[in-house]
Amino acid sequence: MPIPNYERNLSSKTIQKKLQQKSQSSLTKNQNRVYPFIGIQRTNSNLSLSSLSLSQNSNDDSSVGSSICSWEQKVVSFQGILSSWGKKRFLFDREERKREEEREEIVCLEKKEEKDDICEILNEYLNCDEPGSLKRCSWITKSSDEVYVSFHDECWGAPVYNDNRLFELLSLSGLLIDYNWTEILKKKELYREAFANFDHNIVAKMEEKKISEISSNKELKLPEYRVRSIIENAKCVQKVAKEFGSFSGYIWGHINHKPTIGKYKHHKSVPLRTPKSEMISKDLVRRGFRLVGPVIIYSFMQSSGMVIDHLVGCFRFNECLKLAERSWGMTNVAV
Predict the structure, then answer these.
(1) Which residues pair with 58 in a beta bridge?
(2) How confident is the model over 7-32, as pLDDT tens digits?
(3) Which residues contact 64 (CB under 8 A, 6 or more apart)?
(4) How far apart are CA 312 and CA 308, in angstroms?
(5) Spatial distance between the Cα atoms of 139 and 136, rounded to a whole number of angstroms
(6) 285 with 122: CB under 8 angstroms?
């Protein structure tokens, strides 16, 4: 039985509507799967497939191809947007990592400064003395050895003008390459016994037998080349004394016979070497001296009072100044 025309038309419209809804639903799902974060709205989008609906009045293949081409262009456009967004995101991440590294570096520096502050506070705590006790340089603490404290309180920074005592301090300062002051001072009497109380005239005449005896002494622990260096320096002291009248006059002449006053408030400000110590070192090397680098010479200058590097808050600062003032003008005489 033939289907009436109005029923045929109704069926055609119904089929067209269902196909259109199905196509739109399928496209929306695909869009959400490919670009879930963009949030494309069906009602505002030109990507609708309504042009692909089965219309009674249009079955034109070119129309369908044109619509698909338009849809593909939109997809490519979105891909371009995503690519641009990806590059920006990469640059953003790289800059963020760089800023994070800078923050970590700042934190490390802050921790280091904090650690330095803690060490300084701890050092001040260790240096705090009982009420009424003497205030010393900050490197003298409660844990400092007694022999080192005595050296600080009685010798270090006090002007020395005797040739033999200067030769002794020069020799002991040279041993700082291998030992610290505490270790050296503990063996000072042994060194004096081995090197004839550091009489440079006697030491200069020491022969191979004496050299072997000193270098084989297990208590001294002095290698043979160290012993030979001290003996060679004694010979050089003799030559200088003959040229300048005394070794004291020669060595103090480098600073115009007056000590350099440090006036330092903090131990970190005290130098290890100075241009003056470098100049003296070069001249000593030129004259044949050994173990007389700029750092060793500056230690020698400190111990012999050529420079007064006691901190201004130390009780020995003013005492050494008074000793130096009484001695000025007498440095060309070996007492």
Answers:
(1) 55
(2) 444 455 565 665 566 555 544 544 44
(3) 51, 52
(4) 10
(5) 8
(6) no
**What is the C-alpha to C-alpha distance for residues 181 and 177, in angstroms, rounded to an integer?**
10
Full 3-state SS string of the chain: CCCCHHHHHHHHHHHHHHHHHHHHHHHHHHHHHHCCCCCCCCCCCCCCCHHHCCECCECCHHHHHHHHHHHHHHHHHHHHHHHHHHHHHHHHHHHHHHHHHHHHHHHHHHHHHHHHHHHHHHHHHHHCCCCCCCCCCCCCCCCCCHHHHHHHHHCCCCCCCCHHHHHHHHHHHHHHHCCCHHHHHHCHHHHHHHCHHHCHHHHCCCCHHHHHHHHCCCCCCCCHHHHHHHHHHHHHHHHHHHHHCCHHHHHHHCCCCCCEECCCCCHHHCCCCCHHHHHHHHHHHHCCCCCCCHHHHHHHHHHCCCEECCCCCCHHHHHHHHHHHHHCCCCCCCC
pLDDT of 125 reads 46
pLDDT tens per residue across span 295-334: 999 999 999 999 999 999 999 999 999 998 887 654 443 3
Burial (CB < 10 A; 0-12, 13-18, 19+), residue 267, is middle
**Residue from 160, 179, 152, 169 nearest 292 by CA:** 169
CA dihedral (132, 133, 138, 143) positive or negative: negative
Give me 330's structure tokens. Answer: 């007498």
Looking up tokens 């400190």, which residue turns up?
A: 302
Tell me the C-alpha distance between 158 and 322, whole Å: 9
Give the tokens for residue 69: 């081409």
77: amino acid identity, one letter: S
